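Need residues for this backbone.
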């Protein structure tokens, strides 16, 4: 019996799946704090603000009113209508109605369902559909795309370009097998943004390719950080471009801008006839997965989108102040090369100048992983190594500054002390 059980295995696609490095370091920091250690966390992409009271009250009132039953798979009419109005009026996405909107259990779930609705497993003897991914990129894009059957094609960006790919890079990467282009602006992990002109130029390349070699190419535009901008660059939704609107799926949610990470409210919006077909496909797939999100949370969606602008702006200003602080502090640490954050709440400095050195505790640094492991063990600071973000990320670490100025200063003091002790 023992030998028979020993041969049992879990699915290969899961066994070979890379765990989220951000979650791993966040959980390790929490565990160390539970053990009484004074660990400073900079790993989680989670605002430290509380959810605005009006949003909480809407959910409480909805719960007390008895909204505890099954709901339509992609959301109730009021929430979908509110999101459609937001996409139309704020993002200028054309022909986006409530029927073009789907609500899922967080932005990651929206991405997962979207990828599985747009990517096919290859037929025998046929090439895989390609997913074009500018890197460094959020750690979950590639694994989710690969689980859905896609082949990830990395397009490398660099600090010198502000972590932005060029139209020529995109043009060279597109082939007849290109199915998805994933864009994320403002960026996790880089903390930088594409300008409106940058995105229009990329959109024109998509339009050209769709008319020639890649007729099935679709853009997934992850705009979850759209309201957290402070570098003088205006947010622009590529789905607002009429020439490609029907081949853009915009992913967003309430987690970051409204400090609602634990609520798990993500959503997608699309345009035109294909947008309707895509959203119906999402309903079919999600109906076999999670169905609706928690029913009494829907009442909070219109409230968040229409009544909490002042709270969102207050948080944005705080993030702008924190960005300025961390940019200044990182600029004073020898061998740490940082590109100024202009959106989201991440710094992504290059620490490769310290590879090959040894820490006070005798640890040899050969990689970003080594750097973060030693920093956590010796100086009790949790940051995320950049290897899993792809491309030049292997030389970088990600620092989430979704925390107080005092927390940032303490963390930068410890990071400076760690670097000063390297030999």
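Answer:
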């Amino acid at each position: 019996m023992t030998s028979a059980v020993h041969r049992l295995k879990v699915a290969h696609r899961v066994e070979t799946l890379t765990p989220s490095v951000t979650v791993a370091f966040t959980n390790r920091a929490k565990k160390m704090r539970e053990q009484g250690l004074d660990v400073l966390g900079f790993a989680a992409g989670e605002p430290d603000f509380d959810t605005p009271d009006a949003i909480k009250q809407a959910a409480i009132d909805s719960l007390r009113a008895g909204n505890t039953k099954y709901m339509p798979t992609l959301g109730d009419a009021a929430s979908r209508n509110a999101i459609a109005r937001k996409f139309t009026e704020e993002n200028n996405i054309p022909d986006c109605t409530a029927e073009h909107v789907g609500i899922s259990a967080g932005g990651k779930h929206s991405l997962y369902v979207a990828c599985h609705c747009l990517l096919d497993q290859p037929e025998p003897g046929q090439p895989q559909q390609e997913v074009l991914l500018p890197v460094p990129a959020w750690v979950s894009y590639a694994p989710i795309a690969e689980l859905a059957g896609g082949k990830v094609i990395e397009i490398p960006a660099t600090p010198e370009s502000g972590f932005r790919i060029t139209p020529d890079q995109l043009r060279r990467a597109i082939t007849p097998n290109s199915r998805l282009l994933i864009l994320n602006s403002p960026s996790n992990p880089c903390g930088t943004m594409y300008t409106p002109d940058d995105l229009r130029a990329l959109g024109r390349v998509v339009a050209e390719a769709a008319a020639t070699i890649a007729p099935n190419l679709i853009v997934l535009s992850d705009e979850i950080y759209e309201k957290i901008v402070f570098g003088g660059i205006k947010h622009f939704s590529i789905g607002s471009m009429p020439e490609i609107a029907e081949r853009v799926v915009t992913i967003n949610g309430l987690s970051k801008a409204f400090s609602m990470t634990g609520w798990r409210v993500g959503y997608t919006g699309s345009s035109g006839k294909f947008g309707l077909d895509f959203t119906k496909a999402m309903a079919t797939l999600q109906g076999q997965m999670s169905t609706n999100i928690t029913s009494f949370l829907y009442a909070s969606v219109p409230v968040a989108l229409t009544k909490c602008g002042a709270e969102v702006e207050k948080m944005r200003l705080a993030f702008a102040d924190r960005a300025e602080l961390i940019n200044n502090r990182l600029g004073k640490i020898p061998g740490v090369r940082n590109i100024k954050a202009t959106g989201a709440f991440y710094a992504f400095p290059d620490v490769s100048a310290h590879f090959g050195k040894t820490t006070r505790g005798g640890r040899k640094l050969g990689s970003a992983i080594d750097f973060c492991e030693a920093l956590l063990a010796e100086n009790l600071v949790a940051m995320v190594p950049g290897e899993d973000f792809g491309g030049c990320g292997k030389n970088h670490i990600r620092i989430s500054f979704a925390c107080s100025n005092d927390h940032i200063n303490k963390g930068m003091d410890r990071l400076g002390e760690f670097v000063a002790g390297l030999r």
